[in-house]
Amino acid sequence: MKRIQYVGVGTSTFQSDPLPRDEKGSFKLASDWNYWVSRRRLAKETLPQLSKHFPDYVAFLERLGVNMFRFSLEPDLVLRPGTFDECVMKRYVQQMALLRLHGIEPFLTLNHYTMPFDSTGISGKNGEIVQNAWELRGARGYFHFLVDNVTRFLADDDKVRAVLQDMQLDAKEQDRLIANGLVRHFMTINEPMAVIGHGNVIGIFPPHRKGRVDIALIVLQKLVAAHDIAYELLKGMAYRKGWSVHVGIGHNWQYHQGFGSSFFRGIEHFVADKFERDGTHTDFVGLQYYCWMDDLWRGKRPDTYGRYLDWGDVYPEGIRKTLERMHQRYPGKPLWVTEFGFSDERDLRRPWWILETMRHIDVASREGVPVEGVLLWTLAHNFEWNRGMQEHFGLRAEAELTQPLGAGEYNPMSIRSESAFHAVAQAMLHPSPEGDKLLDDANRRALRQFKMASEK
């Protein structure tokens, strides 16, 4: 049976760099979300800066022992309609190359919510966002132009080689990186259900509308068309170059059980089916799982693991059941866990949550669910959309990335999430008696720490 091949970490470039700066040190308002952040009262010096600290991210990924990192493209590649910024693209190529030099496979998301600021509807009265760019006429043209130019650059050996030469890599290393392509895994659209619903139905994202199902359905049609464009461009690039690339979507499905569960599962199926159709429009389906949702009514479910923000309950077993549901709906299609994660400021209960979730993913894999990879959200604390910097999904703060693995474990029986994830990654990717022993020790420490934290 084919086992899980990739264990890694995911982020979005915007969330890890919400207010990027240009060469002069000024903030760049490339996207709608850059603009949204710029208008909030935030301590901007506390925001993460992925582009500045990318080598630190890679070094910490290497210490974790993982073999994949997911990040995203941003609209700064197309600051003006019809103009592709190759200087920005060179930065992305450098990041992909640096990951591969350290044995880490890049996984690239083409659209992770953000859209060009210039294509966003802004109110002339109060300056707030009143229309998402996906609603407007030029959205599909922008996405086509973006993906077409990205694929052209990645397929241009001379342009890629020039970037690698600037990194002072020797010819042999350049040839190795160019031979099979710098990136082989792509997500076209991140969480289409959230893209159409958060801003138009439940109102937690700009433009903060509620109940506009009509607009949500229009945007869904545009997302499907954009995905199809990207899929054809990426597969065409791979065919011409003789590469193997894998293209899919990341769907935010949760565990539903109780009053209203059939309705919410039906919405998840409806959106995903629009992209899957006969199964020939994707190479994999991604699951982005977080909790047992409250749906319309929480009921009297047992509070075994604790609450998950204000969305529902932490429920590791739910990821196995949701993977089984996804496999049943799309039989024969490879599955990925493209996101799972937890916010835990003190990092006392999360190690156990991570280990239990990974255990249930492993059980699903062993029982025949074709899980190819698992990505934890996330490496360093980032900007969690409408919740800002108040959540702590990262294994560390960005400023701590240079510290040794396990720093902060104040006694032999304490454990941080990074050590727990390191242990399970080693056990999955490099099975051995030593790895099993490391994982057993992590489980003992994490369970003890979880029980003590839950009693307080």
Return the string of H and E elements. EHHEHEEEHHHEHHEHEEEEHEHEHH
Low-confidence stretches: none
Question: What's the overall geometry?
Answer: globular
Fraction in beta strands? 5-15%
Can you tell me the CATH architecture? Alpha-Beta Barrel
Distance between the termini: 43 Å
Structural class by secondary-structure content: alpha/beta
The total count of helices amounts to 13
What name is given to the CATH topology? TIM Barrel
**Could you state the CATH homologous superfamily?**
Glycosidases
Largest sheet: 8 strands, parallel, barrel
Number of domains: 1
Side by side, the strands of the main sheet go: 1-2-3-6-7-8-12-13
Helix content: 40-55%
Number of strands: 13
| CATH class descriptor | Alpha Beta
How large, in whole angstroms, is the Cα Rg? 21 Å
| Average pLDDT figure | 95
Structure description:
This protein is of the alpha/beta class and 456 residues long. It has one domain: Glycosidases (TIM Barrel). 42% of the residues lie in helices and 12% in strands. It has helices at 32-38, 50-64, 86-101, 139-155, 157-166, 171-179, 192-197, 213-241, 261-276, 317-329, 350-366, 417-429, 433-455, and strands at 6-10, 68-72, 105-111, 121-122, 129-131, 185-190, 246-251, 284-288, 292-293, 307-308, 312-313, 335-339, 371-377. An eight-stranded parallel β-barrel has the order 1-2-3-6-7-8-12-13, surrounded by six helices. The protein has a three-stranded antiparallel sheet with strand order 9-11-10, with no helix packed on it. Helix 2 runs parallel beside helix 3 (86-101), helix 4 (139-155) packs parallel to helix 8 (213-241) and helix 11 (350-366) packs across helix 13 (433-455). It starts with 5 loop residues before the first strand and ends with a helix.
